[in-house]
Write a structure and sequence with these properties.
The complex is a heterotrimer.
Chain A lengths: L1 H5 L1 H20 L36 H36 L2 H16 L2 H11 L5 H12 L1 H15 L2 H8 L4 H37 L11 H7 L9 H28 L1
Chain B lengths: L2 H7 L8 H29 L2 H6 L5 H11 L5 H13 L13 H35 L5 H14 L3 H15 L12 H30 L2 H8 L4 H15 L2 H14 L1 H6 L5 H10 L3 H29 L11
Chain C lengths: L11 E10 L2 E11 L4 E5 L6 H8 L8 E8 L2 E2 L5 H7 L4 E4 L13 H13 L3 H14 L6 H4 L8 H13 L5 E5 L7 H14 L4 E6 L2 H7 L2 E6 L2 E7 H6 L4 H9 L8
Parallel strand pairs in C: 3-8, 3-9, 6-7, 7-8
Antiparallel strand pairs in C: 1-2, 1-4, 4-5, 9-10
Helix pairs in contact in C: 3-4, 4-6, 6-7
The chains are: A mainly alpha, B mainly alpha, C alpha/beta.
């Protein structure tokens, strides 16, 4: 972890960002002093810093900051859950395939091509439609189901080489049960690259979820998500630019922090 | 030393290999089959197109009539076999929205996406390759650090966010460029730049890493030991190796563009295949969705095959597996 | 140090060579000479400073390291040359052979093209003549086929063949000094002797500095040996003498670990 000593500023910044995130996740729009659903029709499209609204109000008089914070909760929650699902499915699949015969390797390759060729949008929309308007769960499950190959590819490749390492072979020969083999010997070897992957995947999920809610898919109608906020702001680009800038910059901030963390982890692995 | 292995090593690079081509076609057929099957059942699960076609306030009898007319009342497996059979003759039926042949509708929209993809590819290469080469030559330096920081920030912007911001600034505020549509060159700028903005950072990073790896490699050391000046080293030894390693990413990015420009096309009302996909999926226009997905799979496969062939042609290590080595 | 009693200056003269990485001094002060046609073996364990000393002779150290001290090539002070002048020396008057021939050749270029590049640069020949010379050189290195080898890519050749090509590259412009850094370490033992013999035979009129940790290989072809430890030459002398009656304890240590080497004299 010597790289931490060399870049203390970065670590402090990231820790701070994570803390802010946590606080927002817990307290939500209460931090802004307004309820995100509260409409103040007398104060529509108010610019930032008017009437106690730090970031202004939108076309229905709702406090932008409150909606922003609510949107963060939604984005982080969906992205984390989607990453979790993709991680679980992908890692399991990758481990099983790595353990099994090489025929499974061929299946994996085809599955990977299949996932790459199958337009994720179609898959996402149809899965969401199949599950009705369950909102959170449909989005999370969809994103997880569409992106798990990212994990399985990496796990498959790395686990295969790990399984051939001496200490694993030795443990196997002592008759260790498969699960213990995985947990004690294989998983620790996977942790470095998996942790990097998890962080970058999380960032990608933030983007994917907001892209979908931008198009009006998945999130309940009228919900305060960043994608929805961006979509609604299109009509007011000139008159109320803060409506576009707030969710845009918030999204960028989270993504840049996630990327920085991922890069940091990658450097620490070397 | 044995002369025989060397002689066959130095044979001509393998010409077009029919066996691997057949294998590729087999994979393509399999993926197409799997995709179209999954698609069929998935779509049928999402909703009843008969209801959508009948429109609001239609009576159950009217819905039934439509169902019978389109064959939606048959058992699902029968429907599937009819569908599969038609697919083999490339008959995708007609659009449920306006009755035009589905495949035709999809084919008409494809060029717009291809056009955007090629433009983005060109601009991406023009920007990323030189930048990556430049960045990889030195770790330190104020200018390089600044550019790297800029790239990091750019990577934080999702493509559609950049699109919105650019529309905000250039089309709405400054009114330099049109906001939407596909017309003359002025309409090409913002969509292309939006796409390039999220493709370029990754490519720059890869080229940079490859450049640095080449510069610190042993073969560059050999070149230096032979007295090669810096520009010869850069252009004759570093650049070819660095760029070769980027081909895979360029191919993957192009394949992505064929299927993933959905949001960008929607924002700019760019009449491409992604935009058509959104429309037809949301309106449950199954035949068109099926035709679109079919074309997308073909496109992705073709892109991958081309990228692989390019690599095999340019890299002497591929394809010439026979070596005394 | 043994002196060559005739009037032409030694091919290589080093006086007070000092190499440091920042404040860390790796080689405090190295001095040696190599005469025409002489092969000096620099033997020592990894990290003893032999490789960086060798690289410093061609001024090819990585940026992090600095070097000072006199280096004379055929009586001319090359440590005083500008970088542009030095580039004319490298490959032309100093030839280098590296340890790992696979990674030392550009995988995207034929072995012949690398030779031609060096020939054109240092001898100014037109391309067709350069190619002829490359073919000749590789044939002299006992690489099979004439155009077959010249047009081969590195991955097509065996390890031994690649190393022959590398030696060919080092010798093609008839340098005054050859620096060979562990040239046989990465090769099969059966091939090692052949390569050593080739090096000895072909480098006959040049001075050669042969770096290795394998004292057996060194004793096979070197006229004199210099034993290095922690950046300092602890003992130096004719090979026979060093092998039969080593003085320094470190030399004895090295010898005790080495298998006996055959002699190619």
């Amino acid at each position: 972890m010597s790289s931490l000593k060399r870049v203390p500023a970065l670590s402090i910044l990231l820790a701070f960002a994570a803390l802010v995130c946590l606080v927002i996740m817990v307290f939500g729009d209460a931090l802004s002093g307004h309820d995100h659903r509260e409409m103040n029709l007398d104060l529509r499209l108010a610019p930032p810093l008017t009437g106690g609204h730090l970031l202004g109000t939108d076309e229905l008089g709702r406090d932008v900051l409150a909606r922003l914070l609510t949107g963060l909760r939604w984005s982080v929650a969906t992205a984390l859950s989607a990453t979790f699902i993709a991680f679980v499915i992908g890692t399991t699949f990758g481990l099983v395939a790595a353990r099994g015969q090489s025929a499974l390797g061929g299946v994996m390759r085809l599955l990977t091509t299949f996932t790459q060729a199958f337009p994720p949008f179609v898959l996402a929309v149809t899965v969401i439609a199949v599950m009705g308007d369950a909102g959170f769960f449909s989005i999370v499950l969809t994103l997880g189901l569409v992106t798990w190959p990212v994990f399985s590819r990496v796990v498959y490749a790395e686990a295969r080489s790990l399984f051939e390492r001496e200490h694993v072979l030795a443990a196997e020969m002592t008759g260790m049960p498969a699960i213990r083999l995985f947990v004690r010997h294989v998983l620790p070897g996977l942790i470095p690259s998996l942790s990097v992957l998890v962080v970058f995947h999380f960032a990608d999920m933030i983007v994917a979820e907001s892209a979908l809610s931008f198009l009006g898919i998945g999130a309940p109608l009228g919900a305060a998500t960043w994608g929805a906020m961006l979509s609604e702001s299109r009509g007011y680009m000139l008159s109320a630019p803060w409506l576009t800038l707030s969710p845009a910059l918030a999204m960028v901030a989270i993504i840049v922090c996630a990327h920085a963390l991922g890069q940091h982890l990658r450097n620490a692995n070397r | 030393m044995l002369p025989a292995p060397v002689c066959c090593c130095v044979a001509r690079k393998e010409e077009f290999n029919p066996v691997s081509a057949l294998r590729g076609l087999r994979d393509l057929a399999f993926v197409l089959f799997a995709t179209m099957t999954v698609l069929f059942f998935l779509l049928r699960l999402t909703g009843d197109p008969a209801i959508v076609l009948a429109g609001e306030g239609a009576s159950p009898a009217q819905v039934e009539a439509i169902r019978a007319e389109y064959g939606f009342d048959e058992p699902i497996l029968i429907q599937y076999f009819i569908y599969a059979g038609k697919l083999l003759t490339l008959d995708f039926g007609v659009s449920l929205a306006d009755g035009t042949p589905a495949l035709e509708k999809a084919l008409i929209s494809f060029p717009a996406t291809l056009f955007l993809a090629f433009m983005a590819l060109g601009v991406n290469l023009m920007i990323s390759l030189p930048t990556g080469l430049w960045l990889g030559q030195a770790r330190k330096g104020v200018a390089r650090r600044g550019v790297r920081g800029l790239i990091t920030v750019m990577q934080g912007f999702p493509g559609f966010v950049i699109a919105l911001l650019m529309i905000n600034i250039f089309a709405v505020a400054l009114e330099w460029l049109p906001t939407v549509g596909f017309g003359g060159p002025a309409t090409w700028i913002l969509p292309t730049l939006s796409v390039v903005s999220f493709l370029a950072p990754k490519l720059i990073r890869v080229v940079e890493a490859n450049t640095y790896a080449a510069l610190t490699s042993n073969y560059v050391r050999t070149a230096k030991a032979s007295g090669a000046p810096d520009n010869v080293i850069l252009w004759r030894h570093v650049a070819p190796n660095a760029l070769l390693g980027a081909i895979a990413l360029v191919g993957a990015e192009f394949a992505f563009m064929l299927t993933g420009l959905v949001v960008i096309e929607t924002i700019f009302a760019w009449p491409g295949i992604g935009w058509l996909l959104v429309q037809s999926t949301l309106s449950l226009d199954f035949p068109v969705v099926q035709a679109v997905v079919f074309l997308m799979v073909l496109g992705v496969f073709a892109t991958n095959a081309l990228a692989e062939q390019l690599q095999a042609t340019l890299d002497p290590r591929i394809g010439n597996a026979r070596g005394a080595g | 140090m043994s002196q060559i009693a005739s009037s032409p200056p030694p091919s290589l003269g080093v006086n007070g060579l000092r190499i440091s990485a920042g404040d860390n001094v790796l080689v405090p002060g190295l001095s040696l000479t190599i005469g025409r046609g002489e092969i000096l073996g620099m033997v020592g364990a990894s990290g003893s400073g032999k490789t960086i000393s060798a690289f410093s002779l061609a001024r090819l150290l990585p940026e992090a390291l600095t070097q000072t001290g006199e280096i004379s090539l055929e009586g001319e002070r090359i440590d005083l040359l500008s970088e542009a002048q030095m580039r004319k020396v490298r490959g032309g008057r100093i030839g280098m052979v590296f340890q790992d021939p696979l990674s030392s050749f550009n995988p995207l270029r034929t072995v012949g093209s690398i030779l031609v590049e060096s020939i054109c640069r240092h001898q100014g020949l037109p391309a067709s003549q350069a190619r002829e010379l490359a073919i000749e050189t590789l044939a002299t290195m006992r690489l099979p086929g004439r155009t077959a080898s010249v047009d081969a890519y590195p991955h097509m050749l065996s390890g031994g063949q690649r190393q022959r090509a590398m030696i060919g590259l080092a010798l093609v412009n008839q340098p005054a000094l050859i620096i060979a850094d562990e040239p046989t370490t990465a090769l099969d033992p059966t091939i090692q002797l052949q390569i050593l013999a080739l090096l000895r035979h072909q480098a006959s009129s040049a001075a050669c500095l042969f770096i290795t940790h394998d004292i057996g290989a060194a004793s096979a072809i070197c006229d004199r040996l210099a034993v290095m430890n922690e950046g300092v030459i602890v003992e130096e002398g004719p090979t026979d003498q060093l092998l039969s009656s080593p003085v320094h304890p470190f030399t004895r240590e090295l010898l005790s670990h080495a298998p006996g080497g055959a002699r190619f004299r």
